[in-house]
Design goal:
Elements (H helix, E strand, L loop, with lengths): L2 H12 L3 H13 L4 H11 L11 E2 L11 E18 L2 E12 L2 E7 L10 E12 L2 E6 L4 E4 L26 E17 L2 E11 L4 E6 L11 E12 L2 E14 L11 E2 L2 H6 L2 E14 L4 E5 L11 E2 L3 E2 L3 E11 L4 E6 L1 H8 L3 H11 L3 H11 L3 E11 L2 E11 L4 H13 L1
Parallel strand pairs: 1-2, 4-6, 10-12, 13-14, 19-21
Antiparallel strand pairs: 2-3, 2-5, 3-4, 5-6, 5-7, 8-9, 8-11, 9-10, 11-12, 14-18, 14-20, 15-18, 16-17, 18-19, 20-21
Helix pairs in contact: 1-2, 2-3
GO molecular function: DNA binding
Organism: Haladaptatus litoreus
Keywords: DNA-binding
Length: 423
Amino acid sequence: MNVDEHAEALASDLGVDKEEVKADLQNLIEYSVPVDEAKQSLRRKYGDESSGSSEPSSADIADVTTDMGNVTVTAKVLTVGKRSIRYQGNEQAIFEGELADESGKISYTAWTDFDLSPGEVITVGNAGVREWEGNPELNLGESTNVAREETDLDVSYDVGGDSSLADVRPGDRGVSLELTVLEVEDKVIDGRDGETEIKSGVVADETARLPFTDWEARAELTEGATVRADNIYVREFRGVPSINFSEFTTVEPISRDVDVNDSATKLSVREAVETGGAFDVEVTGNIVAVRDGSGLIQRCPECGRVVQKGQCRSHGQVDGEDDLRVKAIVDDGTGTVTAILDDELTAEVYGGGLEQAREQARDAMDQEVVADTIREKIVGHEYRVRGNLSVDDYGANLEASEFAETDDDPAVRAKALLSEVDA
């Protein structure tokens, strides 16, 4: 049945307006509330307590699937996070985290405050099941019952949200981290309530660096500050985990120094691409080609996209603004990645800035000569590239923050490699 059919049947059963029921049902489904759970919620809203489904079956967490309508599980609470969402035009606080039993763990979202605490063992009755990030997730609503258990559960997972940047993954909620703020920028964005001040930048710990967004623009998050942050949630941004501070995140200064890992994670190209996206990685390989769209280019003054023959894909005919860029293919023998150099790094490898590139293009009456000059300088040479990697259906791109020719002697490196193999 589609939404319209569910709404018609429900409205007929309840004796209320179909369009009103349909609008409420669509709102709930848009927030991934399972259909059965949504229909029960609407029955309660319109004063019908007689409805219900068959008694939900008890299940081990490892056996829970998205095909199940409602289930009952007994589990230990691993984490509890809190954030707000906009639901039906109003702010709605939700609680999120993970539960575990001896068979496995599962994430949950609670639409009601059940006053959950990490470490306690609970039986969750009549929890809905939905899909989240490709996996089953428990949905705890008004029809869900939560009972505290006296007996403990031995689970093979850490209780509480303490983690490190190297271990967080998109979708994590209720995370606690001790961090150093490396970079911070104040921004004003068009938020859901109009112009909103936020902070964004980079945080680090002993294990990694990651981008962050603070939706409350806290004064504590200044460059160089060391803090403990509780109740963080993690999203994916441009293929990498992004640390998010919500209105419910608590941030406290700490007296100890958080040692920062200054070096990027060194990976082969294949290892890097297999991550699906990574922040601050380093690969080394030969430049085998410089792709079209390198050298002297033009960008749309409205959106910054590269203009092709005076045409922007979003804004049509525009007067493009000159810029410098390199898209270099790096091959280390395990795979290839496109290193994208901004105007500053491009000027370094070109040996001149924008004015020099314009002059060379005018003299040759062909702006492609700038890219040709860059090709002659870097193709066939080995470079170390550091930056942020994104991977999509169109390939892997490494937005370079560093691009430097290696000074290793290939013969010495080959000899060392052979020695390791012989050993």
